[in-house]
Amino acid sequence: MLYLSLALLLFALFLFWQSSKQRQEAGLPGGRVIYTDMRAWGAPLEQPLFDAKLGLTGKPDYLVEQKGQIIPIEVKSGRAPEAPYDSHIYQLAAYCLLVEKTYGKRPPYGIVHYPTRDFAVDYTPALESALLDLLAEMRRDETRAEVDCSHAEPARCRRCGFRNVCDQKLA
Ligand code: SF4
Question: Which of 80, 90, 110, 128 could hold 72 in an S-S bridge, CB 3.0 to 4.6 Å?
Answer without folding.
Answer: 110
